[in-house]
Amino acid sequence: MERIAIQSLIDNMPLVEDFLSKFCDEHHIDNYFAIISVPVLQAVENAICHGNASDPNKIVTIVADNCKGGVAFTIEDQGSGFDFQKYVGSVMEEATGIFLMQSLSDSMEYSNGGRTLRLEFMINGIDGSDALERISCLQHFYTTPSVVA
């Protein structure tokens, strides 16, 4: 298990990217870096901006660990949480960060009143149709006008 804790400042995002890059390198999954980093960085940005309201006195913690069949990242903020239930199983706008995280991870689960998010990624388990769907999702996300998650 590896962990990083950052102040809730958007300027700290490069620290998280470096953490993810090092984790992928050390676990020999460099080829998964892009598919992992996009949703994890989105989750951290949401935790900073929405969860902790960009309060530099609050911390966002990211834990990277192995899970059955892959790797998992847990992102936790110190905010008041949010009603994540309204997003579970609902049709979301394709330009939202939550849609992006859900589409690019193999499992996404909120807990702790919406203050904790766990994203899991299966390694060597993604089939061709899932890969094409994720590529399409990324292309659509980055060509659609941005909507705040």
Description:
Helices cover 38% and strands 23% of the residues. The chain has 4 helices and 5 strands. α1 (13-26) packs antiparallel against α2 (33-51) and α2 (33-51) packs antiparallel against α3 (97-104).
Task: Describe the secondary structure blueprint for this structure.
Elements: E1 2-7, H1 13-26, H2 33-51, E2 59-67, E3 70-76, H3 97-104, E4 107-111, E5 116-122, H4 128-143
Antiparallel strand pairs: 1-2, 2-3, 3-5, 4-5
Give the C-level CATH assignment: Alpha Beta
Radius of gyration: 15 Å
* Helix and strand run: EHHEEHEEH
The main β sheet shows up as: 5 strands, antiparallel
Shape: globular
**Unreliable spans:** none
Please count the beta strands (DSSP E, at least 2 residues each).
5
Give the N-terminus to C-terminus distance in angstroms. Answer: 29 Å
Count every helix, treating DSSP H or I runs of 4 or more residues as helices: 4
CATH architecture heading = 2-Layer Sandwich
State the main characteristics.
149 residues, alpha+beta, Heat Shock Protein 90, 5-stranded antiparallel β-sheet, 4 helices, 38% helix, 23% strand
What's the short version?
With 149 residues, this protein is an alpha+beta fold. It is built from four helices and five strands. The protein has helices spanning 13-26, 33-51, 97-104, 128-143; strands at 2-7, 59-67, 70-76, 107-111, 116-122.
